[in-house]
Specification:
Largest sheet of chain B: none
Number of domains of chain B: 1
Largest sheet of chain A: 2 strands, antiparallel
Distance between the termini of chain A: 7 Å
Number of helices of chain B: 13
CATH superfamily of chain B: MetI-like
CATH superfamily of one domain in chain A: MetI-like
Radius of gyration of chain A: 24 Å
Strand content of chain B: under 5%
Helix content of chain B: over 70%
Radius of gyration of chain B: 24 Å
Oligomer: heterodimer
CATH topology of chain B: MetI-like fold
Strand content of chain A: under 5%
CATH architecture of chain B: Orthogonal Bundle
Chain lengths: 306, 303
């Protein structure tokens, strides 16, 4: 177990290094001179050169990368000249918003996806199942920004009950969470249904039924324990991805989170922020991957870590 | 011939017997795999629209119509003349939607091909040669799967400068990881089969075995995956254009049309619904086709 954890940890660190290198190369390849962006278009060339030198941008790429990683390890994510703030502060302002929205969306996904999946499995190949499958297909195929706009137009504007966008309290979270939840729940529905169909066909369920366990109890106490496993794994990965920022939903609802920050910084070629947001998102995914693997082995003793 | 004797009144000639038989089989197929048929039809319609957009469209998608705006300068709602109304610049929305289908398919297809090529290459090498090669490739694959996908694609497109080509290159370059995994697992299961071992013992070279014996067995999962991937890529392209990093105005793409219409959703909701519903239907089509093909072609999914 210990050696497995250590190996996974090393693997996680390697993945993060790889991601930092690729982000760095993309940032380097991008058009536009960061020094020129900082001082403005009117500044004389000598000032630009001085800034470039001060920032170490005139050094070879590998050296720049080493300096970048060195600063990262000290917890210094750089400085956003566009916002005139240290990147850590910028992220700090928005991380709370994104975490709230991510949790909101995640909860809607789970509340809709898991029961609908179980329901679909119970009515497998009956009309209710077909209707649900079609709805989940629509959910999977629905672009978030189209659904978000539809909600803004028909609920926020049409009914006039919820704010059109922005952040601040529960009321601002409802529509974006529904947007995330409805487009994201379909995957849970499919996953849950196929795993429940499989579990319900197993011998131990038949045995439980034969022993006269009430049908409802067979589902809640026997089938669901195993049927939930794939959904649990996916839920862990899913929340990690949501924490990394939900670019489209945040953009549609003008919600000040990490995703919107990432998008704006790409638009402004604000590289310290781009690299920080990408890295942050990757850290969430890598950590979740790691935790899910460990938790999984605890829930399911059949899986041995080696 | 027996059939002819049995139903002479229904089928005067042998030719129509095979025809009814064929019709019957087709009906059976439609009933058994409705998603292949419906998804396939949607995709087919989309391909036709994309190919013949200039013929179908009555108006130039880029040119504002002289009577395209009302006297107050507002977009015209859907009417007999402009089926899906006009946009804020007085251009015909229907023509723009048709040409948008072109961009969507182009990006979806070519991005899919790029991911397929990279994924197939790495998946085959990884699965066939195994050992440390496999380990390195699979770690890289894990890494790519851990990427915040949309952010990476947006960043790469921004770095390369936004254009249709760069959109499909960026999607393709980051989208191959799932493909590599699928192909690798397929290769792993095929390479131990007797006929591959036989080819090996007859002295066939590694690449010969890969191309002649292994790759044909990978075709089914690849087709299924490609259908699903094209659907996803179409959605991604729309997302990129929506964010302003994809197809640049005035050229139409469903994503940038929705973005342009966003500020006018009360005044002119058709600006969002026309491209939005097209996007939804196209994605449903490819997803249905992919799911249906899986049911039909993949024996592992029990029917």
């Amino acid at each position: 177990m210990a050696s497995y954890i250590i190996r996974r940890l090393i693997g996680a660190v390697v993945v993060l290094f790889g991601i930092s290198i690729i982000t760095f190369i993309i940032a380097y390849a991008a058009p536009g001179d960061p020094a020129r962006l900082i001082v403005g278009a009117k500044a004389p060339q000598s000032v630009v050169d001085a800034v470039r030198h001060n920032l170490g941008l005139d050094q070879p790429l590998p050296i720049q990368y080493i300096h970048y990683v060195g600063r990262l390890l000290q917890g210094n994510l750089g400085f956003s000249y566009h916002n005139n703030l240290p990147v850590t502060e910028l992220l700090g302002q928005r991380l709370g918003n994104t975490v709230q929205l991510a949790l909101g969306g995640w909860i809607v996904e789970l509340i809709l996806g898991i029961p609908l999946g179980i329901f679909g499995a119970l009515y497998h190949r009956r009309i209710a199942d077909y209707i649900l499958s079609f709805l989940s297909l629509v959910g999977i195929s629905m672009p978030v920004f189209v659904f978000g706009m539809w909600l803004i137009q028909n609920v926020a504007h049409g009914l006039g009950i919820l704010p059109l966008g922005g952040a601040g309290g529960i009321s601002h979270l409802i529509l974006p969470s529904i947007t995330l939840g409805v487009t994201g729940m379909a995957f849970y529905q499919r996953l849950m249904k196929s795993s429940m169909v499989e579990v319900m066909g197993q011998d131990y369920i038949r045995t439980a039924r034969a022993f006269g366990v009430p049908p409802r109890r067979v589902i809640t106490h026997h089938a669901m324990r195993n049927g939930l496993l794939p959904a649990v794994t996916y839920a862990g990965m899913d929340i990690a991805q949501l924490f990394g920022g939900v670019v489209l939903t945040e953009t549609v609802f003008n919600y000040p989170g990490i995703g919107q920050l990432a998008w704006q910084s790409i638009e402004n070629l604000d590289f310290p922020v781009i690299m920080a947001t990408v890295l942050l998102a990757a850290v969430f995914v890598v950590v979740a991957n790691f935790v899910v693997d460990i938790v999984y082995s605890v829930i399911d003793p059949r899986i041995s870590l080696s | 011939m027996n059939n002819v004797a049995l139903e002479p009144s229904l089928s005067p000639g042998a030719g129509s017997v095979t025809q009814t038989k064929r019709k019957f089989e087709l009906l059976k197929f439609v009933k058994r795999y409705p998603s292949v048929v419906i998804g396939g039809l949607i995709v087919l319609v989309m391909v036709i629209i994309a190919l013949f957009a200039p013929v179908i469209a009555h108006y130039d998608p880029l040119k504002p119509m002289p009577d395209g705006l009302t006297q107050l300068g507002a977009p015209r709602p859907p009417s007999h003349e402009y089926i899906l109304g006009t946009d804020t610049q007085g251009r015909d929305v229907f023509s723009r939607v048709l040409f948008g289908a072109r961009v969507s398919l182009e990006v979806g297809f070519f991005a899919g091909l790029i991911s397929l090529f990279i994924g197939a290459l790495l998946g085959v090498i990884s699965g066939y040669f195994g050992g440390w090669v496999d380990m390195v490739i699979m770690r890289i694959t894990d890494m790519v799967l851990a990427f915040p996908f949309l952010l990476f694609v947006v960043a790469l497109v921004a770095a390369l400068s936004p254009s249709v080509h760069n959109v499909f290159i960026a999607i393709g370059v980051f989208g191959w990881a799932q493909m590599a995994r699928i192909i690798r697992s397929q290769v792993l299961s095929v390479k131990e089969l007797e006929y591959v071992q036989a080819a090996k013992s007859l002295g066939a070279s590694a690449w010969n075995i890969i191309f002649v014996e292994v790759l044909p067995n990978v075709v089914t999962p690849v087709i299924i995956y490609l259908a699903l991937a094209i659907g996803q890529n179409i959605m991604l392209e729309a997302a990129l254009s929506f964010l302003g990093f994809g197809v640049q105005p005035p050229n139409p793409s469903w994503g940038n049309m929705i973005q342009e219409g966003m500020g006018y959703y009360q005044l002119a909701p058709w600006l969002i619904y026309a491209p939005g519903i097209s996007l939804l239907v196209a994605t449903i089509g490819f997803n249905l086709l992919g799911d249906g093909l899986r049911d039909w072609l993949d024996p592992k999914v029990g029917k």
